[in-house]
C-alpha cells in the first residue's frame, strides 16, 4: 500500500507537506501542491475517505442543490462551481429539486446532512428557517433565497439592475412598445425592493420605463408561466396572433429569450428589424443561436469563486457575520438588437 511517506520521497518534500497538500491546506503553495499531487498520481495513491473523515470530521465534498439542471443557466453554473471547487480540493455532489418542497427536504436530510461538509443551495419552496432546521448547523451558502436571511452568506445576481440596463438599452435604440416576458402585472410600488428574483426583474423593467417617462401598463406583461424556451415560443406566437403591436421583448432569462426568438421567426417577424429581443443570464447558447442574443451576462466564474470560497471559509470555521455577495454581470450587445 502506498503511504504518504512514499509520496514525500517521490516528491522530494516532507511527509507533513504531503499531508497538508492532500488536505488542501492554504499554507501550501499551488506549485508545491501540484508537485505532491503529481507524485501521488504516479504512485496510484488513493485517499481512504472513510478513514480521513473519521480523523478530520470532513469529507471534502460539498453539495450543490439547484432547482432544474435542464436549464442551461443551471448547467453552466454547476459546471463553473464544480470546476472551481475541484481546484480548491473539494468534490461536488449535484442534485436538482425540480421546484418540489419534498425534494428539497429529502436532499437536505438524506444527502447533504450525511455526505457533504456544506451545501450551496438554491431554494424554491423552503424558507431559510425551514432550511436551517434541516441542516443542523451544517455550513451553507444560499443562492437567491425566497426570503431575506442574516444567518447564511447569500449569493445574489443583480436582477433588477440587469433588467433595468437591458430595458434602457432597447429604449435608447428606439423601441416604444416593449413587452416583458414573463410576469403578471403588478404596481411598481408593490414590487420594488422585492427579494424574489422574478419580481426584481419585473421591477427593473418598470423602473426603466418610468425613468424614460413611460407609465407601465398591464398589456406589456406576458402572464407568469414557466421560464422555458418551449413555453416562451408558444406564448409569443399567441401574442403576435392576438394582434398586439410591439417592437421589443425584454425576457426574464436567456432560455425564454431563445424561445421568443424562435416564435417570432415562426410568425415571419425579423429580428431585430421588426422586434428586438434581450435575455438575462449569459448562457453559451445565446452566442450560437441565429441571431445571436443580446443579454445581461453573468460572470459564472466570478459567481463560482465567491460562492465556493464563502462556503469553504464557513466549513473551516469562519464565524464572521453573514454577507450578501453579488456576481459580476454586464450587458453584451449582439445581433438580436440594433
From TrEMBL:
Pfam family, one: LacI
Record-linked InterPro entries: HTH_LacI, LacI/GalR-like_sensor, Lambda_DNA-bd_dom_sf, Peripla_BP_I
PROSITE patterns per record: HTH_LACI_1, HTH_LACI_2
Keyword Metal-binding attributed: no
UniProt keyword list: DNA-binding, Transcription, Transcription regulation
Domain HTH lacI-type: 2-56
Protein name per UniProt: Transcriptional regulator, LacI family
Species per Swiss-Prot/TrEMBL record: Bifidobacterium ramosum
Organism placement in taxonomy: Bacteria, Bacillati, Actinomycetota, Actinomycetes, Bifidobacteriales
